Amino acid sequence: MKLCLFSKKDAALKPGILTDGGVVDISTLVRQGATPQLTMQALIDDFDARRSVLEDAAASARPISLDQVRLGPPLPRPGKIVCCIANYWEHAQRAPRELNMFLKSPDAVVGPGDTIRLPEFTEPWAFMHEAELAIVFKGPSKKIAEDNWRDAVFGYTCLIDVTARGEGRITWKKGSWMGKSFDTFAPIGPCIVTADEITEPNDLHVQFWNDGQLRHNYNTDDMEHRVPELVSFVTQFMTMNTGDVLSCGTNHEGLGFLQDGETVEILIHGIGRMSLKVEDPLHRTWERGVYMGADSTHHDAVRRHRPEVVLRESDASVRAGG
């Protein structure tokens, strides 16, 4: 099931089910929170109990055409957005990298059809896109074992980790979270696909276009640290509550610049597609296309760089300093 938040004529966001024919309004079938975010969290918490009612509505109710509604971010203000650093086997590399994460400001969230606004700072060298699979949690989830990772996962969505760069591909302010957390730097959407719809989150095709030019084009099978490990890892450090988001990192092949007037689009097959505008009040310009500096390469095809055999014990030893 694809759950969303939508509005008509700039009214308040309401919960819905996204179908091939449009959006089914389910606002009378679910608990209403004080905010759209709390409504979505209540829907996640109650989902198992309300599933049959929602399935009946999706099958029988007449959907509202998408051209009559505006989709909002399905999680307008998550309690936490945790993001993986890198996390892909780029360029057929074999040396494992330590799993690491950072927090991104929940106030940076925007949704389908919104605008990514570049800040009026002259210090960041440039601004780039990172198209990522994101995990939506049901909680409270704490100290989840890898074997039980599905207990903590409600569903999946798309996230663009917009990033201010300092020197080359170094995140502005020497890798701190600040270069990731400007307002509008966390587009999420267009919906949350419930976990039962995704058989294997590490076999999803991720694509990203900038003004129609394909940039990111990769498969989540290339994750160095896969979804079960990510879920277990983050919940050892903190409690992941209902509606919290963990973004799985990006394959930097296809990395490029964002600049004024562009339209960007992310698609994760099996989840959904959303587009946004880019606005820069300073009207700065950078080279167009895939950035060929640092560790980016071209993306002519979906590349599979994950080693055929990953020696988990060796990887664990390296991560532990062994």
Order of helices and strands: EEEHEEEEEEEEEEEEHEEEH
Q: Count the strands?
A: 18
Helix proportion of residues, in percent?
10-25%
- How many angstroms does the end-to-end distance come to? 44 Å
The CATH topology of the largest domain is given as: Fumarylacetoacetate hydrolase, domain 2
Tell me, briefly, the overall form.
Answer: globular
Compute the CA-based radius of gyration: 19 Å
If you had to describe this structure to a student in words, what would you say it looks like?
This protein has 322 residues and is an alpha+beta fold. It folds into two domains: 71 residues, no CATH class; 239 residues, Fumarylacetoacetase-like, C-terminal domain (Fumarylacetoacetate hydrolase, domain 2), CATH 3.90.850. Helix content is 14%, strand content 29%.
Helix/strand layout:
Blueprint: E1 2-7, E2 14-19, E3 22-25, H1 36-60, E4 70-72, E5 81-84, E6 101-104, E7 109-110, E8 115-117, E9 126-128, E10 131-137, E11 153-160, E12 163-165, E13 186-194, E14 205-210, E15 213-219, H2 227-237, E16 245-247, E17 263-268, E18 272-279, H3 312-319
Parallel strand pairs: 5-16, 7-13, 8-18
Antiparallel strand pairs: 1-2, 1-4, 1-13, 2-3, 5-6, 9-12, 10-11, 10-16, 11-13, 14-15, 14-17, 17-18
